[in-house]
Amino acid sequence: MSQHNPAAYGAAVASRYDELYGEDELGTEGTVAYLHELAGAQGSILEFGIGTGRLALPLLELGHPVTGVEASPAMIAALKEKPGGKQVQIVEGDFSEVEVPGRFKVVLVAFNAIFALPDRQAQAMCLQRAAESLQPDGLLVLEAYVLRPEQLGSGWCVLPRMVSADHVELQLSRYDHATHRVVRTLVHLRDDDTSVTGVSDTFAWPGEIDLMAEAAGLRLVSRSGGWHREPYDAASSRHVSLYRPGPAEPLE
For residue 252, what pLDDT band results from cuts at 50, 70 and 90? Predict the structure, then answer.
């Protein structure tokens, strides 16, 4: 995907997305429990890049009003076909551009969604949209991967992304230092099937995301290495970062 097309990925994988990325493989139960705690009883949630509703539908079952922004008609159709899917409010469009009515307790940008945007300007606009959508006491919750040392060279790197008895996903990636683009080829291996999907990401280090968030009027309040509040350190391969509206607080 050399040209930005928010609907293209969904069109390519929507029919098989839930098969490729099962709830157990992505730790959905723990993610939902964490978000439920952050949102509080029946707190409203807005998800940028809602996809097929992996997180939205169980949050809806827990009593949270859920709104989603999604650029892929194929993903939206898959979500609407699921039990409860028609109860989710959907705004179709690019989440760096569309304005969503209302204010929310939690704005969620999960599973590397911010990297799907074409450049830093779009990422900054995404965080501005998130800030505009938050209640004064709300939280932006952002999940994204962090490049490992072996991925920082100019050549191709092969890493196992998920491994189970009946499903292996290999990630072939190459990072361009000049453009901050990460080209990824995701190879899914199953007993009866093999599939390949290409993805092009605009990578940003956590500190770069913090600066864009600060420019949008958001301050970092915590960062962990995953949805179970694992410590974030040099060995972390992803981060879950929480931001609140308000100016940055001075470091102690």
Answer: very low
- Domain check: are 109 and 25 in the same one? yes
75/111 same-domain check: yes
Measured distance CA(212)–CA(251) in Å, rounded: 18
Query: Do both 195 and 209 map to the same domain?
Result: no
Say if 77 falls within a structural domain: yes
Give buried/exposed letters for 191-215 (b at 16+ CB in 10 A, else e). eeeeeebebbbbbbebeebbebbee
Residue with tokens 């938050």: 134
Q: What average pLDDT does this structure show over 79-85? A: 96
- Closest CA relative to residue 201, chosen from 112, 74, 140: 112
Here the CATH number for the domain that contains residue 188 is 2.20.25
Instruction: Report pTM.
Output: 0.91
